[in-house]
Design a protein that fits this description.
There is one protein chain. With about 200 residues, this protein is α/β, with parallel strands linked by helices.
């Protein structure tokens, strides 16, 4: 049963000495080291480290944020380790999943992560519902200038050009173009009605 360490710094200019000392003091014989941003998915040494771990081993890090890109990523990695019967230890936070207290902490982390995801989903649904109530759909507003609108409507009269091509050219959806076309027709009809009524008086 080996104790394997993993250390990471964000830039090549930063030093790993502090982490190495802490990991060696925790019994790590072999240490894998990455020099990459915490948000980067390209952490080759971490991949090699996780691959090298065997059942009964312990992975030790200096601090939790050295391992996961975010809370969900951290929990995912630790859950995978637990599934392989590999223990996890974080020096700074005094977490050791080899004991009941450490396991409890990660169960709480997992519950908090799920709670956060649920809140985000609820806020998104509520936001979309509020937008629909105000007559708007979700997403980036798609606006054309008056000149672009005239050009788009003129192009839509040309059957050699598809609506999809026109939409792509102006950076809007096809539904936006159809809405503009409908509004234009209604405007023309209203104008003609007004002119007709004016002539009748």
């Amino acid at each position: 049963m080996a104790v394997i360490g993993y250390a990471r710094v964000s830039t090549a200019e930063q030093t790993l000495d502090l982490q190495r000392d802490a990991l060696h003091a925790s019994g790590a014989v072999n240490i894998y080291e990455d020099k990459a941003s915490g948000k980067s998915t390209d952490r080759q040494e971490l991949a090699q480290c996780l691959k090298a771990l065997r059942e009964g081993d312990t992975l030790v890090v200096w601090r939790l944020d050295r391992l996961g890109r975010n809370l969900q990523d951290l929990i995912r990695i630790v859950n995978e380790l637990e599934g392989r019967d590999i223990k996890f230890k974080s020096v700074k936070e005094c977490i050791d999943t080899g004991g009941p207290a450490g396991k409890l902490v990660f169960h709480l982390f997992g519950a908090l992560a799920e709670f956060e995801r649920e809140l985000v989903r609820e806020r998104t649904v509520a936001g979309l519902a509020a937008a629909r109530a105000r007559g708007r759909k979700g997403g980036r507003p798609q606006i054309l200038t008056e000149k672009e609108t005239r050009a788009a409507l003129a192009m839509m009269k040309n059957r050699d050009i598809s609506v999809a091509e026109i939409a792509q050219r102006f950076g809007v959806s096809r539904s936006t173009l159809y809405s503009l076309q409908t509004s234009h027709r209604q405007s023309v009809v209203s104008k003609l009605k007004g002119e007709t009524l004016g002539m009748s008086h």
